[in-house]
SDR family oxidoreductase
Amino acid sequence: MNILLLGATGRVGSHIVTYALHECHHVTALIRSPEKIQIYHKNLTIIQGNVLNRDDIMRAINGMDIVISALNTDGTTTLSESIPLIIEAMENEGIKRIITIGTAGILQSKTTPTVLRYQSSESKQKSTRAAKEHHKVYDMLKQSTLEWTIVCPTYLPDGEKVGSYRIARDILPDGGAKISVPDTAEFTYKQVEARDYIRSRVGIAY
């Protein structure tokens, strides 16, 4: 399978690259600074470019079967500015499947089900800026024709791969407090083949 990975040099993205290459998929990574990626593999193609550049997205997405976005907020609006370009390119190319990394803040609140967690007392985060960015992405994906899945981890330490965790559609598993980067990446990668959470958010935690 040909996978376009955005955010390949990030904490979660770098693990997804490893999982995908181990399974013999062909991975194309669109990266602003190619020197940041320390993986060398015959099935890994590096394209230097920017997710905020329509031409770079179109160049990278050509011939892909699926898109995985592990982009993070990094105190910027990169997420909300890039997703319209990604959606446009995918729809133009007839690519349906996209998996993105979100945040538990955009899951439905259990205490106030009509709002998202970051909008309720359920969230312990002092700042809502990152959640608002992810919320914009969620809204744009809902309005698209794509088969999207948003993986929504809670507190995300580097940690070790445990290999077992709880998942829940559109909400955070009860009492979920954290999930490691490697386990989040593993679950995200598994969605390449899975069809269980099409057009859904997925809460993930230990």
User: Anything to note?
Assistant: The chain has one domain: 2-205. The mean pLDDT is 95. Residues 2-205 form a domain with the Rossmann fold fold (CATH 3.40.50.720). DSSP finds five helices and eight strands in the chain.
